[in-house]
Write a structure and sequence with these properties.
The complex is a heterodimer of chains A (415) and B (315). Chain A is built from 16 helices and 13 strands. Chain A is an alpha/beta fold. In chain A, strands 1, 2, 3, 6, 12 and 13 form a 6-stranded mixed sheet that branches. A 5-stranded mixed sheet of chain A has the order 9-8-10-7-11, with helices on both faces. Chain A has a two-stranded antiparallel ribbon with strand order 4-5. The longest helix of chain A is centred in the N-terminal third of the chain and has 20 residues. Chains A and B meet through α3 and α15 of A and loops of B.
Amino acid sequence: MRSMRLGLALAVMSAVLLAACGGSSTSSGGAASGTIRFSGWTSTPAEDQLLKDELAAFKVKFPNINVTYEPVPQDFRTKLKAQLASGTEPDAFYVELGDAAGFMQKHVLLDLRSEMAKTGTNASDFSGQVLGAFKQGDAIYGVPKDSNTLALFYNKDMFTAAGVATPTKDWTWQDLTDAAKKLTKPGQWGLITNADSARWAPFVYQNGGQVLNSGNTKSMLLDPATVEATKYYLSFKQNGSGTYSGALGAGIGWPGDAFAKGKAAMVMEGGWLIPFMKDYPNIHWSATELPKGKQRGNLVFTVGYSISAKSKNPDAAWVLLNYLTSPDNQKTVLHSGFALPTRTALASDPYFADHPAESAIFAANAYAKPFSWGINSGKVADAISAALERVLLGKQSVDDSLKQADKEVTDALAS
Amino acid sequence: MAVGTSPVVETNTGLPTPVQAEAHRRRRPYREWLASYAFLIPAFIVIGGFTFVAMVAAVFISLFKYDGFTLEWAGLNNYAKALVNADFHKALLNVVYYMVVVVTCQTILALSMALVLDRIMVGRGVFRTIYYLPAITSSVVMGLIFSWLFSPGGWVGGLLGIVIPGAREFGFLLHPETALPAIMTTTIWSTAASFMIVFVAGLQDIPAHIYEAAKIDGAVGWRSLWNITIPLLRPTIFLVVVLGTIGTLQVFDQVYVMTNGGPLKSTLTPVFLIYTSGFRDFSFGLGSAEAFILFAIIFTFTLIQRRFIDTTVEY
């Protein structure tokens, strides 16, 4: 606990210092001034404090812009939708990836291109696919706050004990299968494979398969490549070298718990696992990119900052968002260990050299696809997760289960 | 207004005329009437605003396709969609199963606890408090505690593991066959306590002289229970069964906390489905339609129960 507080204090100090001395490369706010409202959900106390420090630093740099920060502790999405419907939304706010498609369809977000031009910010400044889910044609409706992909986290001691070479980014599916088998013994599993569309999809993409067609109008779940990837994903549970986190007992709520409590040798998770593992100093771990199938495949998880289409002061709102997503600010966030950057400018940051997990997660931005399947994302993800669950519980074969999911997804897309 | 001025009032004799006396008598109730309305206003605003207006709005919304942004006339389409939805059927089946088991068990358990309490002479208050504790515990807290008890390696599996090998690692909430019964147990545990208090009050209403008369006639123990206590408790039993039915048909919090409707929709209930339609899928029209169908079902159940349980009692 004490070390966490110390770390927090250091993070706060470095945030303030970096913000104070590193201002030179950020574009100036020009004539923008006035008061704007900014809203997002709250996270851990430490992360909330980081944002408050960022806003304080912004105030010093742009004294003409007044930011009213409106944090929402719970049900942010519901509140934002109600605000958008009644026309009382803040000027700038977080948009979750799954909501982006629906909001763009309703034209409630501002196309940021003209604002971006004013500060000389380009779409190409953002790495890989992180902008993808916030784009419609060439129009850009949000800038990613931070981003995550999945990495293969592994327990070094378990690999040593089993005499298996630690994973590299060049591992194939066969390597993963073999290692998982060798790392399994009573009370310990090789790999955690939950009934979660967000862990399954990377394998589909690695196998050259699709979840929906490119226009998000048709289910591709019965595509042979998708079926094959599903069989592979579920093979770990079926051959006993993997399991799902719920089966592991009290206190194992998600794969990260299984990993942190020494029940699993490998898990596929994002950057959120890194601060979590600080509470488990006895687990010696590292991480690398997900294995390759026929090609590389991964998912991008990101949250965007958007501006309301009705905002009276879009210039000031953009100055704030541009500041928060600026390379300087993202560098502060990266070094504090809370989130990974979205700017290509930080690709060669020295921080990555001695942080393999962060480095693997950032590298996958280049080829990962956004975790979004259009306006019906929620229903599609549900149908897939339920299909995986049916197989994990031994209720249905992979083929039958995917057929049912295909029908459910087709119905959802038609409604 | 000329019509209202009566000539009788103008003849002043010093004593109140019958008309004045009548007016005086009326004025006071009128003032009390005002005062009682003043006291009612806060509750009226809260209930009116958050229940009545919301209900009327829901009727309206259920006839539209509404995602929070655009209203699109849908007629009875939402109702038609809800009625053919396989998930809604599954949710109804689940909740009826849940209702039958929970209402039966909680009524019997509550009545048994009340009867025991009624007979205890020493420390009745202490036992009553202990029995009542689950009723004042938040359902979310109860849900969390019971999820731990039912999880693999939890206490329930641990206890069963003494007799059934392998039960220790069994996750009750992870299997479609056992998840709903696990939630039922949680609910019975907490609601039996609150209904126990209702039964305790009901038992105190039964006049002692009836028991005394029965005793003289030789009816004691089980006979007195079957022939006097239970028949005379009929109104209380009706109340408990009806409240139990309404409550179980609307179950939401335990499902939300313990299973989220899973595994494989085995714990999906209508209110949970209404919540997902409205606040996850943002199909407020469909959610409202589902809510009204559920209302119709609860209404029907209550009517049927009224018909079958005779609540008239004469002491």
